[in-house]
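Thread: Newbie trying to understand structure tokens

Hi all, I'm a second-year student working on a class project, and my supervisor (Dr. K.) asked me to get a predicted structure for one chain before our next meeting. I've only ever worked with sequences, so writing a 3D structure as a token string is new to me. If someone could post the tokens and maybe explain what I'm looking at, I'd be very grateful. Here's the chain:
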Amino acid sequence: MKAIVIIGDGMSDHPVAALGGKTPLMVAVKPHIDAIARDGVTGLFATVPNGLPNGSDVANLSVLGYDPRACLQGRGVLEAASMGVDLAPDDVAMRCNILTIDAEGKIKNHSAGHITTEEAAEIVRDLDRELGGGRGPKPARFHTGVSYRHLLVLPGGWASAEFDCTPPHDFVGGREVDLMPVPRNEAARATVDRIIEIHKKARAILADHPVNVRRRAAGKDPASSMWVWSPGVRPRMETYAQRFGLAGAVISAVDLIRGIGVYAGFERIDVEGATGLSDTNYEGKAMAALDAIERHDFVYVHVEASDESSHSRDLDLKIKCIEMLDERLVRIILDGIKERGLDATVAILPDHPTPVETGAHDNDPVPVAIWRPGEPADSVQGYDEEQVKTGSLGLLRGDAFIRRVLGV
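---
Reply by user tm_fold:
Sure, no problem. This is what the structure looks like when written as tokens:
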């Protein structure tokens, strides 16, 4: 049987004081997501194994049935795959945010006010010209991604990925000087020294960059810093064809998710107007998923909006994002499956919680609902963090979720 997995990134939460101890999922109007739970089976899924970081790379690898302990190499290498950057085995790649540092030296936001891709491309081009270069004893290359999400590659075998660094979205309000990379061993010290050098020089270049002159004049947050995190080298992963004998597709505006899809052997589907924010093209993603499931066994549909609203600590927007996911994507997929006569399982879940009161990822188990036509439902009547605790799936770990979805 075919299967569609819908990811509402970061949509699960903790009880929120402003909601009287309820969560956004509990108060959002989401009849179609609730119907998946009511007509299907439910439970919880521990997507972040103990001891691993609460990152989207860890969580989405888990959702897709991969063991992050075996193949996790950080976001940078996954995003490189999505961007078409071919990494040599000894290249070190890392995510490179463009963000805003306030006058007190603290991280104001992780996205430079959600800078446009066009503005960011101008900045990244200049950073690469001034600070990069493929020659010399410690070469570096910047690659343009989408909005604030970019890539720094240290090629040539001189660098080490054995250093700790900070995801900026988890430390909004933190002091820049307290959050610099730290080597785990002496072999990584030269890498950290080079990164800090690049970081300091980038701050000077960005201070009066033409993009920032225009952004300040328009009352927007400037792109005042570049911030690297999640380093790694090229991972080794089996494709879905090798592991399950299945063909798949991935639909997402986020390079991390698209990069996982590359290593999983999925077709990457571009949807016009897909942004990774609340203004994304929900309907376009839904229709692309329906078209894709007619020619593939498995489709992974990822929507980032609720995660970004959580990082911004915008409760009202998070609730709205859940409701838009329900009405403008889930409804269309469920109706389309019936109208097209498709025999397809539909599952919905977040990859991880992102509590809106903290703005940071969490590792609590996430609620899961799986609907398979013709199979009996459990007794759960709606979808949220509490209701699914009585579901028949119990607490899922490892690849139990994806095997249940795929029926393998």
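A couple of things are worth pointing out once you decode it. The two ends are 10 Å apart (CA to CA). DSSP finds 14 helices and 15 strands in the chain. Feel free to ask follow-ups in this thread.
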